[in-house]
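Two proteins, back to back. First:
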Amino acid sequence: MGQTRFDAADPTDRRALFVDAITAHRERASPFLTLEVDPTALEREDEGDDENGEASEPAPDSELGIPWLQFGDDTVNLDCTDEELEALKSLLREYPAFTIDELTRPEEAEGVNVRVSARADANRIAGFLDAAFQRVYGLDEEFRVWVVAV
């Protein structure tokens, strides 16, 4: 599948897509923008042994559904498991301008909703969003993401 104006799989293209989406969100003064991982990123045809006979990494855990991130009011919003929350906290050590503002554990839902303060320029936020998808949700470098709302 080819790339459109609303999706990207290459890391450089993805970050450019994020910058464009953040810029459009800010210019339109929309409530938020939403980024969603293409469901095929959660599938791994090559699970099992790799070419060296070693066990390949399993597909990312989709326990909470398709990974998504929202950005609005200088805040990144995401749902994650407790294990993914630990990965997020580790990532935040590399982004000192980004801090967890709120953790919510809804009674009627699995996991935790996290609100991360992200007061930075669009490029820095785009880098964080890309890293969060990869490190928090365990996605490969070439995962495809869609801008589903701006």
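And the second protein:
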Amino acid sequence: MQHDLFSSLDSFQALSVAASALLVRDVAGQYRPAEADEVLLAAQQLLAAQVRGSDLMDSPAVVKDFLRARLGNLPHEVFAVVHLDAQNRVLDYVEMFRGTVSQTSVYPREVVRDALLRNSCALVLVHNHPLC
């Protein structure tokens, strides 16, 4: 079977049409095609709700999936903290410091202060490197 640029573009266009089939309801109750940012935000909120206070963050794969959804598409660097209880359940996810494309400043005193205020038993410290 021969593949060329045009057949690849046709399949990409078919995927784009399928992706635009997702609908959202606006405040007036009318349905419209969802924007990509709306879909990503909804996915992040759903994932956060599933993880927060629910099952254990008991494997690297669970942590990776959670963080990939939160940090994967950010255009800037972020230092975040996942606060855990004594059973490694998520208490909260906090993006503490935001930087530019290539750097972010982190203040350890603020990280410790926030952990003490939330009564965290454990922390997952996270820092991304966005694609340029």
